[in-house]
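#dry-run=false #mode=assembly
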Amino acid sequence: MLQSPAVRAGLTLAAATGVYGVSFGALATTAGLGVLQAQALSALMFTGGSQFAFIGVVAGGGSGAAATAAAALLGLRNAVYAVQMNALLAPRGLLHKVAHAQVTIDESVALASAQTDPDERRRGFWAAGAGIFVLWNLSTLLGSLLGNALGDPRAWGLDGAAVAAFLGLLWPRLRGRDPVAVAVVCVLVTVVAVPWLPPGLPILLAAAVAVVMHVVLVRRRSR
Amino acid sequence: MNLWAWVLVACVTAFATKLVGWLLPAEKLQRPWLLQAAGTLTVGLLASLTVMNAVAAGQELRPDARLLALAAAAVALLLRAPFLVVVLAGAVAAALGRLLGLP
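#status=ok
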């Protein structure tokens, strides 16, 4: 197994991304979640962007419903990933599909898509998916225990860590003019909406604006 | 509903979203525009989450040490630092700002 380049790449990716589960766990408990709630998100939700969104909304005073809506919208891309992966890996049977679904995340899909050999594709998908699942959950636990022990999260700059985490998730997606334009407009919409809407809703408004911008940008390009 | 209930609803929703993609007939949804639309939505959400966490406090705009964290993270990303270093840079910048008396 370790002879396979895709497996080695997957495990390297798991080591790198698994580590930032520590920051997720610490931020989750300082946002007001319990250790078990943070762990439930990492084990069951298992999609980093949505998990950070959920605790980000809760930390900002948003309702559970707004946090759930933000997490659900951010998770929509996973359905699109799954369609792509289903075409490439074609697992048979419901249980098999359920297992694949649980580890359908940015990293496993990116690694599998980068392979040309079908067997390597499958190995890469599972090495990254399962490897990250294990490390992400272990590091979440470590982080949430640490977060609980730290005391005042602001004195440690943990609210700043959350800001940095979101920017770090956004950054690699800012390739080209259109994503930058969408990001800038959504930032402005959020800042203007914060004083007027209950916490959490400005994010959903920004999501709606992003979709409208997407339609407009695609139309303009096709002309 | 309490927070536990929402945590579980959000988890079930996230898993169901993934599973739907594996159960749908592949040829129906294999459209490039769908992937692009999902990508744009993700950019918009992450941009909004970034700025909300940087300046919002409930329904108020409250600039404070978190802006230092935003700047430090941007510098770290420009220097191609790995994710964990970016997060640590944000924490250190905000903590230093507070040590120096910023709110």
